[in-house]
């Protein structure tokens, strides 16, 4: 048997690289700027919901995974500058968090706080 941490000990690193690849592929797959912004906004809203659900836990791992997605998206990006990508993602994540915090939107795959 090998010593080592396995998946449980390093899930953040695996998540980081998986979302780095997903962000890169999403960015390359967007055929125009409108779809590129839409993908970025939807992923930001989803991240805002995740932060809302995990707010009273350790949230740094989720920020690290989101940075992986952002880096992948920026690497494959053809339509926006990198500061624009960060601002749009950050604002949509903030609004996603606020939407759930103020109970303006409920539900979502049976996962509730």
Describe what this molecule looks like in 3D:
This protein is mainly α and 113 residues long. It has one domain (11-101). Helices cover 72% and strands 0% of the residues. The chain has five helices and no strands.
How are the SSEs placed, and which strands pair?
Blueprint: H1 6-9, H2 11-29, H3 33-53, H4 60-76, H5 82-101
Helix pairs in contact: 2-4, 3-5
Quaternary arrangement of the chains shown?
single chain
How would you sum up the global shape?
A: flat
Q: Whole-number average pLDDT?
A: 87
Write down the secondary-structure element order. HHHHH
Structural class: mainly alpha
Short key terms for the protein model shown above:
5 helices; 113 residues; single chain; mainly alpha
In a nutshell, what does this entry contain?
The protein is an all-alpha fold and 113 residues long. It is built from five helices and no strands. α2 runs parallel beside α4 and α3 crosses α5.
């Amino acid at each position: 048997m090998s010593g080592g941490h396995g998946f449980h000990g390093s899930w953040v690193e695996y998540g980081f690289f998986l979302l780095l690849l997903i962000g890169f592929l999403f960015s390359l797959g967007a055929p125009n700027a409108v779809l590129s912004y839409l993908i970025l906004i939807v992923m930001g809203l989803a991240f805002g919901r995740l932060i809302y659900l995990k707010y009273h836990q350790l949230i740094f791992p989720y920020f690290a995974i989101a940075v992986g997605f952002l880096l992948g998206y920026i690497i494959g990006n053809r339509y926006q500058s990198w500061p624009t990508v960060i601002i749009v993602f950050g604002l949509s994540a903030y609004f996603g968090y606020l939407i759930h915090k103020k109970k303006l939107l409920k539900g979502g795959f049976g996962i509730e706080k």
